[in-house]
Design goal:
Elements (H helix, E strand, L loop, with lengths): L26 H15 L8 H27 E4 L3 E7 L2 E6 L2 E4 L5 E7 L4 E10 L5 E12 L2 H6 L4 H18 L3 H7 L1 H16 L6 E12 L5 H70 L1 H18 L19 H10 L1 H15 L1 H4 L3 H12 L1
Length: 382
């Protein structure tokens, strides 16, 4: 039954006394009642004047409105850091990007999502994977990336970081699955890293996630613990093989230049000996050619001079001293023992000074006259 049914005035919620049915009470009367109640709570008197009762609720409302306005204005002010860009949403719809600095937004109407676009982030990936030659390896890799488009980073996919992690795991398993175990563990690590990088960029390109891959680091790759010792031995053997090959190549590279150098030196020495022999022969020919006119002019004198020059060369390499004492009775003291010792130690260097000294000390004893010399030389030749 409705409360305003005729004959049921006692159920009127507005307490309409007297049956006048004037409708709901006025708002001023309602605020007056509230003011009287608050006044009683804070020690006010119900018998206060109507003027104070009317001004109190108005003041409370004004103060509350001012406080709410200040709080709302404070909540509308925000700051975007230097390394961030703000994605502005108005009722959930994208309206633009906010640059770093102090800015204003309408609270409860606009929402700002700050996105760091300068920091380089790290994302690891690891797990046991099957290689092309059906071996199991545990690979650990890390990708470094940063945000280049804040809007795509927020709206292109549900979670860009999670999507990148799944793409990295997919690219890593694809590359390892198409590589042999020896390449993954030893020599092909750099190639695996480059292949994972290329495959990762190929996977994330259609999604436009607003991310840029900065680097991909190959941290570790190892076989399972159960077979680790056997693989370590195999790897050591491969490393020894490579080392021995490198040492042999280094030895070959060291021996070959020395051999070529010796060959070149021998060739140069042969050419020099050839030239020296030819020049000596040409010199002898020229010397005899010049001596021929002199010999034809004075045969005896020329033969004597040649004989003297030849004997000088012969005696220069011997330890004998020839002294001509014919025609004189002078006593000479010659330190033969010292001269012999000097000739034994350095015959080429001391033979000529000895002969010159002897000739200086005894100029007259070498030969008395040209006729005497010719007689002695002729007798010596005989």
């Amino acid at each position: 039954m409705a409360w305003n049914e005729p004959g049921k005035d006692d159920k009127d919620p507005w307490k309409n006394k007297g049956g006048n049915n004037q409708g709901p009470p006025d708002l001023d009367d309602l605020f007056k009642d509230l003011g009287n109640k608050f006044g009683g709570v804070f020690g006010g008197s119900n018998g206060s004047s109507n003027k104070s009762s009317n001004s109190f609720p108005s003041a409370v409302i004004i103060v509350a409105l001012l406080v709410a306005l200040v709080v709302y204005a404070y909540s509308c002010i925000y700051t975007i850091k230097e390394a961030e860009r703000g994605v502005k949403l108005r009722f959930g719809e994208y309206v633009g990007l906010v640059e770093p600095g102090l800015s204003w937004k309408w609270t409860f109407v606009e929402h700002i999502i700050p996105v760091d676009v300068q920091t380089t982030r790290d994302l690891p990936a690891s797990g046991f994977m099957l290689t092309q030659d059906e071996n199991v390896v545990r690979v650990e890799m890390q990708v470094q990336y940063r945000v280049i488009d804040a809007r795509d980073y927020i709206f292109s996919v549900t979670n860009a970081d999670s999507s990148l992690s799944e793409a990295l795991d997919s690219a890593l398993r694809y590359v390892v699955g198409h590589s042999e175990m020896d390449d993954v563990l030893t020599s092909g690590r750099e190639q695996v890293r480059q292949s994972v990088w290329q495959e990762l960029e190929k996977i994330i390109e259609p999604y436009n996630m607003g991310l840029m891959v900065v680097d991909v680091n190959f941290k570790d790759a190892r076989p399972p613990e159960e077979v680790k010792d056997a693989f370590d031995d195999a790897i050591s053997a491969q490393e020894d093989e490579i080392r021995y090959i490198r040492e042999a190549e280094a030895y070959a590279r060291g021996i070959e230049p020395r051999a070529r150098g010796r060959v070149s030196r021998m060739e140069q020495e042969a050419l020099a000996y050839k030239q020296q022999t030819v020049l000596d022969a040409e010199g002898e020919v020229a010397r005899f050619t010049k001596l021929l006119p002199e010999y034809q002019a004075a045969p005896e004198v020329t033969r004597e001079r040649l004989y003297l020059a030849t004997m000088e060369k012969v005696y220069a390499n011997t330890s004998k001293v020839m002294v001509d004492v014919e025609g004189g009775n002078n006593m000479m003291y010659i330190p033969l023992d010292k001269m012999i010792n000097q000739q034994n130690t350095a015959p080429a260097r001391t033979s000529q000074p000895m002969n010159s000294a002897t000739s200086q000390q005894q100029p007259s004893t070498t030969m008395n006259s040209a006729s005497g010399r010719s007689d002695r030389f002729n007798s010596g030749r005989n």
